[in-house]
Amino acid sequence: MNTIDTIDANGIRICYESFGNPAGPPLLLIMGLAAQMVVWDDDFCMLLASKGYRVIRFDNRDVGESTRLDGAPAPTMTEIFSAPYTGKPLPASYTLQDLARDTTGLMDALGIQSAHVVGLSMGGMIAQELAINFPDRVRTLTSIMSSTGDPSLPQATPPALAVLARDIPRERSGYVENYVSAWRVLNGDQLPFDAERTAFTAGRSFDRGINPPGVSRQMLAIIASGNRTAKLANVELPALVIHGTNDQLVPVEAGHATARAIPGAKLELVEGMGHTLPRPAWPQIVNAIAEHAR
Question: 59, exposed or middle or buried, with CB in 10 Å at 0-12, 13-18, 19+?
Fold first, then answer.
């Protein structure tokens, strides 16, 4: 069974959906920058749920059907990327720590004391913040295609960076076309790209409601939260790091750095995977998450 609902948590409304046995061990899926919970594919969630877990996905603040901080400052991506060169300060409306508190607030509202936590990209950063600041709420940590925030690590390639800088179309067909084009770049050319499924997710995201200013605020949250490397050295939780060898947005070196930063962390590399979760990689990823949580 799966249920979708909204709930009050940490002073905001969070939209979430559950899959699988409500009595199973809870497994939280935290999505990345600009991405709604539906980017965790339904079939992917059900595959995890089939391993015996109560899988919960949700919209972070400022995307999808969770609370939007309308009226809060929202510079363009171009302004954000040029800020280091212009010297113009861009204060963040919130940080990744606030997003971690949203997550614990959701857990409180659902009566969950602790959960297996899986985060992708920015979601991996939020998951790391949970492990650092709320270790009693995290049974196991899985960080996927994410980073420690160390600015000395290799950065995104120009084509991948250009994807983030694109203006987001406000009408449906243009949004879907741009979305598919962007994810094609992030997928890379080493594993198959499912344009039809990606277009379906794009249309679903558009229909649930897009919020381009929220994307900018989330990006500022990442920047404002800084380098977690030193703090990750104190994490004593079982940790798994999953990363694609062909990631153009968050290069694989960031995965190696994350695994090095967390004592005892395991590193699972997915050959040819870019900054997406392509279906051919699901068995390896789902099995790795499920075995790690066990």
Answer: buried
Give the helix ranges, DSSP H, for 110-194: 122-133, 158-165, 172-187
Contact criterion met (CB below 8 Å) for 130 and 104: yes
Q: Which residue has the tokens 């290799």?
A: 154
Domain ranges of the chain: 2-293
**pLDDT < 70: residue spans in the chain:** 1
pLDDT of the residue at 14: 98
Nearest to 91 by CA among 77, 78, 76, 73: 73
Using one digit for the tens of pLDDT, what is the confidence trace for 272-292? 999 999 999 999 999 999 999
Write out the H or E segment, with its range, that includes residue 30: strand 26-30
Neighbours of 208 (CB within 10 A): 15
Task: Return the percent helix, strand and coil in the chain, to nearest 5.
Answer: 45, 15, 40
Q: Beta strand 12-19 with 2-9: parallel, antiparallel or unpaired? A: antiparallel
The reported pTM is 0.95
pLDDT at 12: 96
CA nearest neighbour of 132 among 57, 258, 233, 241 = 233
* The predicted structure's pLDDT at residue 1: 55
Distance CA 291, CA 234 (A): 23
Report helix, strand or coil for 47: helix
Q: Contact, 182 vs 98, CB < 8 A?
A: no
2-293: in CATH 3.40.50.1820: yes
Q: Report pLDDT for 124.
A: 98
pLDDT tens digits along 69-85: 998 988 887 788 777 77
Lookup: tokens for 130: 């949970």
DSSP, collapsed to helix, strand or coil, labels residue 143 as strand
User: What DSSP character marks residue 222?
Assistant: H
Dihedral class, residue 26 (left if φ above 0, else alpha if ψ from -120 to 50, else beta): beta
- Mapping DSSP to helix (H, G, I), strand (E, B) and coil, where does residue 293 land? helix
